[in-house]
Amino acid sequence: MHGALKMSAAVGRVLSQQMRQSLKVLKSLAGKKNRCFSASVPIPKEGSVSNNEQKSVNRGKSADPLECRFMYPEFLPDPKPEYRNSLREKLERADMMARRSKIDIPEFYVGSILAVTVSDPHAPGKSNRFVGICIKRSGCGLRANFILRNVVDNQGVEVLYELYDPTIQKIDCLRLEKRLDNELLYLRDAPEEYSTFSFDMEPEIIPEGTPVPVNDLKVTLKPQPWLEKWERKDLKGVRDIVVNQKREMKAKAALKPWEKYDLMKIYRETIPEEEQKEIFAEVYSDLHNLEITRQKMKRQRTFIRPKKSG
Amino acid sequence: MFHGCRQLYTIGLRFQSKTHSRCIGTLTKAEAKKKRNQLYDEELKRQRAAVGRIEKIDVKYHGPTEEVILAMNKNLSTPHDCAKHISEGLTKVAALALVNEKPWDMHRPLTGPCDLTFTTLKAPNISTNRAFWRTCSLILGAVAENAFKDDVEVHLHSFPAPSIKSGSFISNVYLNLPDWQPTVPELQAMSALFVKLILRELPVERLVVQEDLAIEMFQENRFKIKQIPDIAKHNENRITLYRIGDHIDISKGPMVGNTSLVGRTTVAAVHKIQTDEGENLYRFQGVAIPSGILMNSFAYGLLEERAKKLNNVSWMPQRIEEDMEEKLTIAAQN
Amino acid sequence: MNQANVTHLVSKLKFNIRPTPRRLKNKDGPPGRVLKIQKTLTALFEYERIELFYNRADEVRGYAERLISEAIRRGPEDHEMMDLANFWIIRKEFVHKLFKVYVPRYQDYSIAYTKLHKAPRLYPGIYYKRAVLELRGNPYPSIEQRNAHSNVLLHNLLLSEARKEYRMEKYKEIAESMNEREVTSQ
C-alpha cells in the first residue's frame, strides 16, 4: 500500500488481499445499512442545504472554464505568496496533463467512494486495490493528495494517496457524491458503520448532465474522548454534538464570528478570478477532451450486447 | 587616467618632427598664461581702485519665502556677496542671478539699486541652462589647453553660442597635429582633467577690459587677435573676459557662478573640421549634467552616444526641418 | 501545502498586498482589530482622504479595496453583500454612498481604487510612520507635488532632444524603405 498509513487505532497494519476478500460479505452488509440512496435513485434530496459552499456543478458540461475549479481544485496553485512561482506552476500543470493522458483520474469530491489500484511489489499479483470514502483532499499541483478511509476487519484504515503518483494504476469512482462538509475527518470518531464500505462494490452510474448529488447524511459521533474538538468546527454533517458545560463555554469563547466577513483573509486563501481564468484557459480544452473520452469509454462499458433469444 | 595622459604626451612627441611652426610666438605656453593672468590681475586692481568713494545701494532680494533688503557697495558687491549674506546653502547652489529680471553673473559687480533673485540648476530658466552650457564650453577650452604637452601648439579658436538641443557643448581648438584621432583612453584622460578642474570648485570671474588690453593679453593667439576687433566693434570697444583658475577666455557671457555646479561630465569626441580660411581646427565635444542631478547610467550613456556625433550647430536645425517637410510630403503621397 | 479555497471567487486587487495580515495590537485582541478596521474604513468612506499611522492605513486599504470590488461584483441586491457592507461600514449612510457613489465611480477602473501616500512623521512626537490614505477620484486637490521645473531641467532637455533625434532617424529609415519598395514595385 502506498502513501501514509493512518489508522484510527494508530496501528500500521497492512491487510493482505485474501483476508479482505474473506471479509467481503460481512462488510457489504454493514455498508448497505447506512447508504442513503442507491444507484436507482440518483437525484439527491438537497432540501435544507442552501450553503454557498455546496454549489452543485452540472457534470459533463462545464461550459465555463471557471467551473473547473470545483472539479479540479489541484490545478490552482497554493495561494501563499511565498510558494508562488509562475514557471513552476506552468511546468507542473503540463506534467499533470501528461499524467492524466496516461491514466483516467475521474471526477470526485470529499464524500465520494473511490477504489484505487496501486502497484505493490510485495502483493500477490503485484497490485493492491483499496476502496474507501474520500475524507480529505489537499495539496496542489503534482503534490495533490486525498485520504481514503474504510473499516477493514473492525479496524479503521486510512490511506493517503497522491493523485499523480506514478505507481497508481487505476482510480475508480464507485459512488460520486458530496457530503455536507469539506472534510470528513470526524468519521474517525464516528461509529464504524459510517465508514465501512465493501471492497466489491459495483460502480454506480449517474446519468449525464445531472448535478453531483449531495448526500445530506448526518452522523452521530461516538462518546468522548475524541481526536479533535468537533464542537468547535461548525460541522453540518454531524447530529447533536453534546459536550459538558465547561467545553461548551470554551467553544463559545473560541468562536470567531467575524471571520466570515474577513475580506482579506478570504482573499489570501483564494486565487483571484483573473488568475484562475488564465490557468484554466490553459488546460481547459485538454481536460474537456479527456472528459469526453472518459464518458465514451463509460458508455461502451455499460452497453450490454443484447443476446440472441431463441 | 595617468596612463591616458602619458599617451597624449607621447602623441605630442610623435608629431614633434613634423610640426611646422606657423604661430609660435616668443613666449612658451606657461609664460604666456602667466603674463595673461598678470595683466588680468593688474586690470582688476585698477578697476577696483577706480571705484573711488564707496557708495551704498539697496538691493532687494526676492526669495521663495522671504524678502530682504541688503545695503551693498556700488560697483564692488556682486550677487555672490549678496547670497553670502542670505545663506551658505544659497551661495553654493545659486547658478545665475537675475538682476531686474535680467541674467547677471554671480561675480559681476552690481551697478545700482536693483531687485535680485537667484536661479539654480534644479529650478532653472532658459538663460541658466545656456549659461551652464557656456561655462562647460569654457572649461572644455581650459582642458584642451592643459591636456597637451608644451611641444604641441594649442590655440583656442572660439566656442559658438550654446545650443543645448545639439546635445553637446563644443570648443574649437587649433592644434598643430595634422591628423589626430583621439583614442578612448585619451578622451577618458581629458574627461578626468575636466573633473579635476570641477573638483577645484573655482569661481568663474568676469572682467570687462578695453580692446587694446585684450589684444595684448592674447598676443600669442592669432585667432583671438583677429576676433577681438570684430567683437569690440559691436560692444563699445570693450571685451568681456572670463577667468577660471588661471584660464582666461573671451565670451559674451553670462556664466554660472562656480565650476562645482557641473556634475557628471564626459569629453565625448574630438572631430577635425575645416574653416573658411582652410585652417585645421579640432572641435572638442562634451556633455555634462548639473551636480545634484542623479541620472541612470543607461540614460547618460544615450547622451554620451549622442554627444559623440559631429556637432554642426549652425545648420543642424535646418536639416531637421527639411527632413520633416520631406517626410510630410512622402506621407501625403502615400 | 494547501489547496486554494474555491468556494469564493474574488477579483484581483490592483496593488501588492502583504502576505500576512497585521494584528493591529490592542487590548481586545482580534475583535478589537476588526473594530479598528471598521472605524477607519467608515471614516475613509466618509472623508475620502484620511491621515493616520502607516500600518493601519495599509491594513485598511486592502479591506476598502475588497469591499468596493465585492460591491461592484455583486451589487446591492445580494444579501451576503449587504451583510458584508453593514458589517464593515458602521454608519448606514455610507453603505448607501458605497453603492450609489463609489460603485459607479470605480466600475471601469483598471487601477487600484485607493492610494496610499507616505506622510512625514511629526518631530518631536510619536515615532510611528504616518500615511495618507485616499480614495481615487476624490474632489480634493492632488496630494502629489510635481516638480514644476521638470521639463526645463537640463538633463530632461537633453534626453528629449535625443529622443527626437532617434525618432527622426527612424522616420527616415521608414521613408527610405518605402521609397525602395516603390522602386522595386515599379
Automatic annotation (TrEMBL), chain A:
GO terms for cellular component: mitochondrial large ribosomal subunit. SUPFAM superfamilies: Translation proteins SH3-like domain. The keyword Ribonucleoprotein applies. It is found in: Mitochondrion. Keywords: Mitochondrion, Ribonucleoprotein, Ribosomal protein, Transit peptide. Belongs to the bacterial ribosomal protein bL19 family. It comes from the Eukaryota. This is Large ribosomal subunit protein bL19m. The keyword Ribonucleoprotein applies. GO terms for biological process: translation. Transmembrane segments: none annotated. It comes from Cephus cinctus.
From TrEMBL, chain B:
The keyword Flavoprotein does not apply. This is Large ribosomal subunit protein mL39. It is found in: Mitochondrion. One of its GO terms (cellular component) is mitochondrion. Keywords: Mitochondrion, Protein biosynthesis, Ribonucleoprotein, Ribosomal protein. It comes from Cephus cinctus (Wheat stem sawfly). Residues 77-115 form the TGS domain. GO terms for molecular function: nucleotide binding; threonine-tRNA ligase activity. One of its GO terms (biological process) is threonyl-tRNA aminoacylation. The gene is LOC107268208.
From TrEMBL, chain C:
InterPro entries: Ribosomal_bL17, Ribosomal_bL17_sf. One of its GO terms (biological process) is translation. It holds the Pfam family Ribosomal_L17. One of its GO terms (cellular component) is mitochondrial large ribosomal subunit. Gene3D superfamilies: Ribosomal protein L17. It comes from Cephus cinctus (Wheat stem sawfly). Belongs to the bacterial ribosomal protein bL17 family. Keywords: Ribonucleoprotein, Ribosomal protein. It comes from the Eukaryota. Transmembrane segments: none annotated. This is Large ribosomal subunit protein bL17m. The lineage of its organism: Eukaryota, Metazoa, Ecdysozoa, Arthropoda, Hexapoda. One of its GO terms (molecular function) is structural constituent of ribosome.
